[in-house]
Design goal:
3 domains, two-stranded antiparallel sheet, 26% helix, 17% strand
């Protein structure tokens, strides 16, 4: 199923004045999608210069829908894993499995000297970024000043909460997202 039809892309081109300079086929979905002139110009503008050499970003190989899905897959805020702290060996509740990346318990992570992690530039920016990403220990979840709320993430000052994400100063809540100063709430967004 196409994310948008050829007619929609041409309508966008006409309305925005942004010329379609190329049409591509998505490597994953097989869907046809356009490359607009401004998209190419933006990629050229934001391409980094490393060691005095301009490293150009490549034009997309995937359609808009597949790129969106790939970005969202990278982010995890609600699936928890049992993992082991790489420093202490203690079990932790984590957003990544310890087979993917080393994790450090929150106290150890905040005490870590991150200046020792680094990768010498080899000429392949994305490969070096991947090496760096895998070498730096991960903070298992983001919780500040919470009590009895181990299975929460991105939470501040929560008390007796379970599977709550993005909450602040809430008490006795279950399965909530972005709850603020809530009490006795179940299954809300």
């Amino acid at each position: 199923m196409a994310y948008a039809s050829k007619e929609v892309y041409e309508f966008v081109e006409k309305q925005s004045g942004d010329k379609i300079i190329e049409r591509r086929t998505c490597k994953l979905s097989g869907e046809q999608f356009p490359i607009y002139q401004r998209e190419k110009e933006l990629l050229e503008k934001i391409s980094p210069t490393i060691n005095g050499k301009k490293e150009s970003y490549l034009l997309p190989k995937y359609c808009y829908r597949v790129r969106m899905i790939r970005r969202e897959i990278f982010r995890n805020e609600k699936k928890f894993y049992s993992a082991t702290c790489a420093r202490t060996g203690k079990k932790e509740i984590s957003l990544v499995h310890d087979s993917v990346r080393d994790i450090l318990a929150p106290k150890d992570w905040h005490d870590e000297d991150f200046s020792k992690y680094g990768v010498d530039y080899s000429g392949d920016f994305y490969n070096d970024l991947k090496k760096l990403y895998k070498s730096v220990p991960y903070l298992p979840r983001y919780i500040t000043s919470s009590e009895n709320s181990d299975y929460c993430n991105q939470s501040f000052n929560e008390k007796n909460c379970y599977l709550c994400v993005g909450g602040q100063e809430s008490e006795n809540c279950l399965y909530t997202t972005h709850d603020v100063r809530s009490k006795y709430v179940i299954d809300s967004y």
